[in-house]
Amino acid sequence: MDKLRLHLAPWDVGEPNLKNGDCVVLRIGKNGPAWYMDDCMKHKPVVCRLTNEEPMNMIPQTVRCPDGKEDWILGETHCYHLVSNSSMFSSGFKADHDCFKYFNASLASFETQNDLELFKNHILHNELSASNALIGLVRQQHGSYAWKDLSPVTFLNWGDDEPADVKGRIIQQCVKMQLNGNYTWHSISCWQSTHFICSTPVVNIQHNHTNENDKTVKPPSSHLSNDKGKKDSKKLVHDDNNHAGNISTNNQTLLSPTPSSSQSISAITILGEFCLVFVIVLIIIGGLHLWKRNRRLRLGNQRIIQFDQLQNEEENAI
């Protein structure tokens, strides 16, 4: 509320969850204080702070997590979700597919140190059963490392003697993050199954900026200006009516057909009908002529066959 910049947030497990509300409530449990989201309309005790310091200017939030992932950990370039359920262990070969299948996301990538710090500050205050988790960094054939979601590799947080390479053989191509200490990264075999972290790119927030130069300045009102405005408005209305009348007259002139155009259209229609009838008559005459020709040929063939039969009978009789 005092617009101070937030450096550390002891969120409870699964928080901040904006589905529960927009206000933050402090809960003091056996593991210490923790924050959680709640409905702002609920009545609760309040905690105040006295200070003589001048509050810092509020830095507007420029990114957020995508819809449906409001309870994910907001980083600088990605939002993160730690899958710490013991029933959802996954290997380095399968974890990226599981992130896509269950969360429509990718195996986590940390482009900047701020991404890691924001993730670490959130995880530090949660009671975790996981000691490490897979991230989306994988070793390529030529020895370099790349993120599975094709994010640029601009930041690395290797532990001591990492990445490991046993006698020049590439046997550890996947990477896990230690969820304690400095949250360092360590290479492991992709066949090993453990917890995993999913991530998805942040969504930019559009802010509406108001420019002082864009504000409309109203002129001072006076009786003279009002009278002049009324006269000008009457003149404009009269001119608009005349202009509208001219437009309607011109449109009627353009749209109304002339006698010559009507006669030409009717002549074209009659000529088209005559041509169509003429073509139909030609088709009928041609069909009759073809039928008669075929009929003559059939009769001629029958006569020839009959003549041949008679000739054969006479020859047999002789």
UniProtKB/TrEMBL annotation:
Residues 75-199 form the C-type lectin domain. InterPro entries: C-type_lectin-like, C-type_lectin-like/link_sf, C-type_lectin/snaclec_domain, C-type_lectin_CS, CTDL_fold. Keywords: Disulfide bond, Membrane, Transmembrane, Transmembrane helix. The chain crosses the membrane at residues 265-291. It holds the Pfam family Lectin_C. Residues 225-242 have a biased composition (Basic and acidic residues). Residues 210-258 are annotated as: Disordered. It comes from the Eukaryota. CDD domains: CLECT. This is C-type lectin domain-containing protein. It comes from Onchocerca ochengi.
